[in-house]
Amino acid sequence: MTARLAAHGLCRRFGPTHAVEDVGLVVDPGQVHALVGLNGAGKTTLMRLLLGMLRPDHGGISIGGVALGGLPAERWARVGHLIETPFAYPELSVRANLTMAAQLRLVDRHQIPATVDQAISELELGAYAHVLSRRLSQGNRQRLGLAAALQHHPELIVLDEPSSSLDPAGVILLREAILRRRDAGAGILVSSHHLDEVARIADRITVMNHGRLIGTLDPRTPDLERAFFHAVHADDEGRR
Ligand code: ATP
């Protein structure tokens, strides 16, 4: 059973704003698919649609060939995601938050302590394991959110700007965690404004502009930033 994510014809408006317009997208197992675009391009809205957090006005989404609405709880448990601000119970420690996240993802209860230990080690949160999440710095809260999203080794991972607020060491830990899961067969959709980091991890880069997918970039392109702006400006010109 693979967790191929496929969306077709997705549209979502907020009043007069076409946040997502006729989007078709695939995330294959064993692939890091990066989504890049300027502020307000529609990346977060698209990810929220793909995860069933928002309803599309039109279009459909499936995971492993099953429409989102019919996906059983145990398949949802094999999805990991972090969208915008990481959620954590403020009065619980890092370890307690991760334990709860593992329970919610239906990790076998005998495996939970080892799963949490591994996540704490992978994101280098050992010094904060017993710290209440409300006392964490922004970057460490992001590490906690990533650990919760990744610790159960999901087969499909959706991360919205996961490197935001991470220090350079955290960016490297995140990169390694993503690539490990890709090599293990997970499909990963990640949005980012950091094109140099995208170039390091992505197998495929899709550019979004004004709610539409406007093309792809080759991660091996020497000047990715230039190619990105070229695609965006050409699309903007085409709209005039
Ligand atoms: P950023 O890179 O700044 O995070 P983004 O690409 O994630 O941006 P979205 O947050 O998806 O972009 O926003 C796309 C458009 O939809 C924007 O014009 C935004 O103002 C609008 N939008 C998003 N959510 C809402 C909402 N809940 N109500 C009204 N408009 C919204």
Structure description:
The chain has 240 residues and is of the alpha/beta class. The protein folds into two domains: 160 residues, 3-Layer(aba) Sandwich (Rossmann fold); 67 residues, no CATH class. It has eight helices and ten strands. The protein has a six-stranded mixed beta sheet with strand order 6-7-8-3-9-10, with helices on both faces. Strands 2-1-4-5 form a four-stranded antiparallel beta sheet, with helices on one face. Strand 1 and strand 2 form a beta hairpin. Helix 3 packs across helix 4 and helix 3 packs parallel to helix 5. The longest helix has 16 residues. Adenosine-5'-triphosphate binds next to strand 2 and helix 1.
Largest sheet: 6 strands, mixed
Query: Counting H and I runs of at least 4 residues, what is the number of helices?
Result: 8
Q: Trace the largest sheet across and list its strands.
A: 6-7-8-3-9-10
The proportion of residues forming helix, as a percent range, comes to: 25-40%
Shape call: globular
Total domain count: 2
Strand content: 25-35%
Order of helices and strands: EEEHEEHEHHHEHEHEEH
CA radius of gyration is 18 Å
What would you give as the CATH superfamily of the largest domain? Answer: P-loop containing nucleotide triphosphate hydrolases
